[in-house]
Specification:
The chain folds into two domains: 1-79 and 187-292, Rossmann fold (3-Layer(aba) Sandwich), CATH 3.40.50.150; 83-185, Adenine-specific Methyltransferase, Domain 2 (Adenine-specific Methyltransferase, domain 2). The protein contains eleven helices and nine strands. The chain has helices spanning 3-24, 42-46, 66-69, 81-92, 94-110, 114-126, 129-138, 165-178, 189-193, 221-233, 272-276; strands at residues 54-57, 73-78, 183-186, 201-204, 237-242, 245-246, 249-250, 262-270, 283-290. The longest helix has 22 residues, at 3-24. The N and C termini lie far apart (47 Å). Bound molecules: S-adenosylmethionine (SAM). Residues 34, 36-38, 58-59, 61-64, 78-80, 188-189, 205-207, 215-217, 219 line the site of S-adenosylmethionine. S-adenosylmethionine is lined by residues 34, 36-38, 58-59, 61-64, 78-80, 188-189, 205-207, 215-217, 219.
């Protein structure tokens, strides 16, 4: 068999595997797609989460796990302010967010794709959370991408017209109810998790090292390990999504073995990022490290 046909067959197999996985996590509605989303693994990670008092998710992104642990006491935080503003708007001002989407979606249908680029330009100046949400629901595969300057620079998804407003509305309402009592903070993970106490639980999902273009902010790995060490010292339980082999490449950033007690392998499906960049479909293997 030619290499090209073999690759196609492999891609097909991976795609059908991914479809199977999607049906098992259908219960978490996709509010905002974020690079590195853990929706596909959320139920498997959740099964490993111990009883806890306060739940912390300091690399919130699209907050797949937050949906399952939003109550009774939870804090979600991220370094990217427009994203945190979006979460706050979903919690406190969902009606405005929904109305705004109906309006913007209507304008988009009248002027495809020009309206998308008007909103993108506006967002890069004003950073309004409703614009971020609109862009994320209409850009190529919903993948966030930033220029070196920090501007959102993904293109419009030409073959799609954006999520239907009725669907958007029911997803926002569902999440809004779920996160009613969640505290959202814009800030660095270290500051936020320093508030945790014994009996609390922290779920950490930092960006892949070397994946700067897809996130705002940078992560110093020795500082990160220092925070894990501090949590261990203070008796706070944590789980960390980390490293992983993606296709042929191995992203091997396993934490030092004295920092954690066990490691679970989780396969998350194919990389949406390589799909956007028209690269070969790569299976992503993620590991979960636990300090308990
Ligand atoms: C892998 S994503 C999280 C994905 C999320 N678990 C989900 O399911 O959508 C990592 C997030 O960490 C955030 N981040 C990067 N550096 C950070 C820092 N120093 N402190 C807090 N958040 C940071 C990024 O903005 C990004 O949203």
């Amino acid at each position: 068999m030619k290499v090209e046909s073999q690759q196609k067959l492999l891609d097909c197999n991976i795609k059908s595997k991914v479809k199977e996985q999607h049906s098992s996590y259908g219960e978490i509605p996709s509010l905002i797609k974020w690079t590195g989303s853990k929706r596909s693994q959320a139920s498997r990670i959740a099964a490993l989460v111990p009883e806890h008092n306060h739940y912390y998710e300091p690399f919130l992104g699209g907050g797949a796990l937050l949906y399952l642990f939003a109550r009774p006491r939870a804090t979600g935080s991220d370094i990217y302010k427009p994203l945190v503003d979006f979460w706050i708007m979903v919690r406190d001002n969902s009606e405005y967010l929904i109305d705004n989407y109906y309006t913007q979606w209507g304008l988009l249908q009248e002027s495809l794709p020009e309206y998308y680029y008007i909103v993108r330009e506006r967002f890069n100046t004003t950073h309004q959370p409703e614009d971020l949400s609109f862009l994320m629901r209409t850009c190529v595969n919903g993948i966030v991408r930033f220029s070196k300057k920090g501007d959102f620079n993904n293109s419009f998804h030409l073959s799609r017209r954006g999520m239907l407003p009725d669907t958007y509305s029911s997803i926002v309402k569902d999440w809004s109810e779920k996160i009613r009592e969640v505290d959202f903070i814009c800030g660095d993970f270290e500051t936020v998790v320093s508030q945790s106490k014994p009996g609390d639980f922290v779920y950490l999902d930092p960006p892949y090292a070397g994946n700067k273009q897809r996130y705002i902010g940078d992560l110093d790995i020795s500082r990160f390990y220092g925070v894990l060490e501090d949590l261990n010292y203070r008796g706070v339980k944590w789980a960390l999504s980390f490293d992983g082999a993606r296709g042929k490449k191995t992203y091997d950033y396993s934490p030092p073995s004295d920092l954690y007690r066990r490691r679970e392998n989780l396969t998350s499906g194919y990389s949406a990022v390589s799909k956007v960049l028209n690269g070969p479909i790569e299976e992503v293997n993620e590991a979960l490290y636990l300090n308990y």
